[in-house]
Amino acid sequence: MGSSHSMSEEIQELAEKTGFTSEQIEHLHRRFKQLSGDQPTIRKEHFDNIPDLEFNPIRSKIVHAFFDKRNLRQESDGLADEINFEDFLTIMSYFRPIEMNMDEERLDHFRKEKLKFLFHMYDSDHDGKITLQEYRNVVEELLSGNPHLEKESARSIADGAMMEAASICVGQMEPDQVYEGITFEDFLKMWQGIDIETKMHVRFLNMETIAQCH
Amino acid sequence: MEAWGAAATVALSVWLALVLGLILLPSVIGVSLGISELYMTVLVKTLEWATRRIEKGVKKQQARMLKDSASNGIIQRVNTTMEKEIASLHRADFELSDIFYFCRKGFEAIVEDEVTQRFSSEELVSWNLLTRTNVNFQYISLRLTIVWVIGVLVRYCLLLPLRLTLATIGIHSMIVGTTLVGCLPNGSIKDWLSELVHLTCSRILVRALSGTIHYHNKENKPQKGGICVANHTSPIDVIILTNDGCYAMVGQAHGGLMGVIQRATVKACPHVWFERSEVKDRHLVMKRLKEHVADKNKLPILIFPEGTCINNTSVMMFKKGSFEIGGTIYPVAIKYDPQFGDAFWNSSKYNAVSYLLRLMTSWAIVCNVWYLPPMVREEGEDAVQFANRVKSAIALQGGLTELPWDGGLKRAKVKETFKEEQQKNYSKMIVGNGSSGNLSSGTEPD
């Protein structure tokens, strides 16, 4: 029936760390409890209960991203087995929209964070490079539902796209030069000039602004 | 001791006499004495007062939040289709950015998904003085707490025994009445008596729940030989509908008390109860229903095509089986008012007994029932389309959202075929565009 003191202190802390408002955190907390079945941590299996998510071709990559230690800002590498509410919020904060009053530096940092998240999604072996094989992996996953599409076509799409990426990042290559893979800096280069902030966010409703609209 | 015993007997008989006179007799005739209406007016006034107190007692900011936390979403979803979204990002055929769309959709689904929230009770805008709905609300003032305590006393000590008495009487008379009527030979007298018994018992049971039901558009009431179709929120939907007319019910044969009721009622009136093994045999089910519908003298069948209880904020997929039988469909929309009591049965959280107890300790069950004009399957329309058409009509009338999802998702997972649809769409887009582009460039990697 109401929040005790320690809860609201925790919420304040989380609000500062992740940038969500306290109402949003309470809402997300309820969602967290719903997903985890009232337990303090979530495991991969808990994401199986979301019907909307089942449709998504890159579902496994998205769920994977929640447990990826690099996204959780932990020093170590690899995958966590389970995440608690704070980790959940940390991952969610990658999808916060940009705020109007952000200065250049923060904006840039924000953008980098989002791109880093995306980079980690592609780079499944955590070696800091998106190799051709990993790229092919993603394309195949996205196109895997189509029975008419042969594996070869999926491959050549990936190869073609990789070629283009190489040409942006490295320029003209010598005939015997081997392109190892897209590093994070190359990745950033590819996105220059494209406005990803509006594409990669989930707009959380701000409760107060709605009330004024009535 | 004897004095106590005598006093108790007198009290009990007075109590029963009151119940008989004020509630049971009017039920038989179908007349209302206005006691429920009085109760409801008092209740509404009290709850309004409570709401005003809450809004005054809480800071203005938070009060606005109370209003909006009832909205069914925390996210504003951008409803562009996959095609538009990816096309706007495209410079070439496949881009790293294509992953954005799916990524974002995935995240939105994780934060909030339309389906699982339908399987838990609706949150209220303002507190209705029941602890069970007290998710967001905090201690406000002493007066409010006192009113709440009085409410608890009234509900548990006054209303609950009354309702339990009525419910017991109702169920007993249903069983006894229908068994007696079942002994008569088939004929119009039997039908008339069976109708009387069913109606009386339904009315008693509705009063047992302090139900206030408003029926709209009674001219569209289901006729004999038709099929009545409604959205499903709880087992008491049946009682709500039979309060106003007689139906032939369709369902699985249960054991226990339900089974006794089922066996008794089927003697008086041709309900269709299936054994569990038979439910699996769809053709047998269809055959029996078709036979029933073909006979114009038989009562309309009552079916709930969703197949499971939904929390009354939305209407989920209607299973096509009911719509393949033929005949005229009479859609009915049922919408409960959650302010007075939550009728939704969350079967994973509460078992039958605790559900009934919660029902009987709520303030009241208030609902609106709309009878919609009859519909028939049109030329060239298959059962699924027809089912969706009926579903839209019901959702529109009842003010519920419409979802294409299957209520069976409460317990099962999404079918593989649906998953592949999305992937097929995306790949069609990519490969369709890329036919002349990258595929022919022949740049083989090393």
UniProtKB/TrEMBL annotation, chain A:
One of its GO terms (biological process) is cell differentiation. It is found in: Cell projection, Lamellipodium; Cell projection, Ruffle membrane; Cytoplasm; Membrane. SUPFAM superfamilies: EF-hand (SSF47473). InterPro entries: CHP3, EF-hand-dom_pair, EF_Hand_1_Ca_BS, EF_hand_dom. Pfam families: EF-hand_1. Its main location: other. Belongs to the calcineurin regulatory subunit family. CHP subfamily. GO terms for cellular component: cytoplasm; lamellipodium; nucleus; ruffle membrane. It is a lipid-anchor. This is Calcineurin B homologous protein 3. It comes from the Eukaryota. Residues 110-145 form the EF-hand domain. GO terms for molecular function: calcium ion binding; protein kinase inhibitor activity. Keywords: Calcium, Cell membrane, Cell projection, Cytoplasm, Differentiation, Lipoprotein, Membrane, Metal-binding, Myristate, Nucleus, Protein kinase inhibitor. The gene is TESC.
UniProtKB/TrEMBL annotation, chain B:
GO terms for molecular function: glycerol-3-phosphate O-acyltransferase activity. Its main location: endoplasmic reticulum. Residues 226-337 form the Phospholipid/glycerol acyltransferase domain. Pathway: Lipid metabolism; Glycerolipid metabolism; triacylglycerol biosynthesis; Phospholipid metabolism; CDP-diacylglycerol biosynthesis; CDP-diacylglycerol from sn-glycerol 3-phosphate: step 1/3. It holds the Pfam family Acyltransferase. It is found in: Endoplasmic reticulum membrane. One of its GO terms (biological process) is triglyceride biosynthetic process. It is a multi-pass membrane protein. One of its GO terms (cellular component) is endoplasmic reticulum membrane. Keywords: Acyltransferase, Endoplasmic reticulum, Lipid biosynthesis, Lipid metabolism, Membrane, Phospholipid biosynthesis, Phospholipid metabolism, Transferase, Transmembrane, Transmembrane helix. InterPro entries: LPCAT1-like, Plipid/glycerol_acylTrfase. Belongs to the 1-acyl-sn-glycerol-3-phosphate acyltransferase family. This is Phospholipid/glycerol acyltransferase domain-containing protein. It comes from Alligator mississippiensis.
